[in-house]
Amino acid sequence: MFKILLVDDDAVHLQSMERMLSNRGMEVVSVNSAAEALQMAKEQGFHCIISDVVMPELGGIDLLSELDKIHCFTPIIMLSGQSSISHAVEALKKGAFDFLEKPVEVDRLLITIKNAAEKQKLGSEKAELLSQLDSVSTMIGESASFMYLLNQIYACAATDVKVLIMGESGVGKELVARALHYRSKRNGKPFVKINCAAIPGDLLESELFGHKKGAYTGADRDYEGKIFKADGGTLFLDEIGDLDLKLQAKLLRVLQDFELDALGSNKTVKVDVRVVSASNKNLDLMVSDGSFRRDLLHRINTVKVTVPSLRERKNDIPLLARYFLKSFAESYNKRLIDFTPQVINLLTEHHWPGNVRELKNVIENIAVFTENSIINTKDILNVLGLESIPEDERDQITSINQARDKFERDFIINHLESNDWKMSYTARKLGIDRSALFKKMRKLGIKKKE
Predict the structure, then answer these.
(1) Mind listing the pLDDT tens digit for each residue in 76-105?
(2) Residues 6 or more apart in contact with residue 80 via CB below 8 angstroms
(3) Is 201 left (phi over 0), alpha (psi -120 to 50) or beta?
(4) Is 306 strand, coil or helix?
(5) The whole model's pTM is what?
(6) Closest CA to 255 of 295, 307, 226
């Protein structure tokens, strides 16, 4: 069924259009302002948007621009009773699918809607395919721990088993979840992600389960929750350890009975979803302290997949670094070929507390600022803020941690010397207490000169 969003400040025309399209089997949502249309486009998916050009405050042309800002690629058909060539040209330049004059010829409108819906379907399929290719292709590695992870993904993807993905921040838990989905029999259906830590608790229930109009103050229309949107596909619950106990109980029912109730609704809806969860928290400890339900943990943890940290797969760091370098070379249209052996050593020996995400950010920084085709030690030290290390000492540095220690040691010695080795005064200048300064001096081998 086609789902259409109608936008027009003319109530009579809006009602007439809604009746005409509804009678032809389409689901129609009507609003009388571009501001409302923008909000609806953020909350719901439509096959097509039909908007008047001339409206108070925000017009149809402005709506096109605002929709583009939120990356809404739904085809938009513009209508106008005050049509002009300039209006039509501007609308088409801004990305409108077509421009029709009022009063609209019904047959032409229906053909245009059909063509727009087909375009939207093709665009969705293309985006889904690109997302699928990206999620699988960026899983790069050859280390033993990485190959073990891949084997787990392949085995789990062939079933509907519930998977709990564990791992530190930045290791690529979402990539694993996407790979599980796209290698499964559900790969033609939606992959819906929700970050349980990113949405305030009072909004998360509505975001997950949906709500009916009037369910609470401000609920001025029906909203399909993420679980319902994932029907037939995969629901990825990222950072599930941040879900409060009330929502844990409600989610447990979905996992037990595959039924859900939207807020404000007395109707139970059946859903068919595969649930994949992820967390960087110790959920067993959370069960012990009462902040996570034991029965929910058993439900989501049929199979546990642990994504190794980057320091556990050091052999993969050069592969990943070169992959990111090539990717950013294409993105920024720069000639970036490779790294010097010294840089590869620096990257491989670094601790990478932010894991693959941190490595990717470092490589992107280098790609943006370097003028070299072969990335050298100076490039990486500049990105890390360690450019003051003398050039004749750079080749002797074999890890980023060593580079940081070298920078910090010289920085502290310079302050101590300029302050005549007065410990308390130097500590205040450095923003630390006296005991912390002594601790750093011992760690870095700094001794007071006689």
Answers:
(1) 998 887 656 677 778 887 788 888 888 888
(2) 52, 53, 54, 60, 87, 99, 101, 102
(3) alpha
(4) strand
(5) 0.61
(6) 295
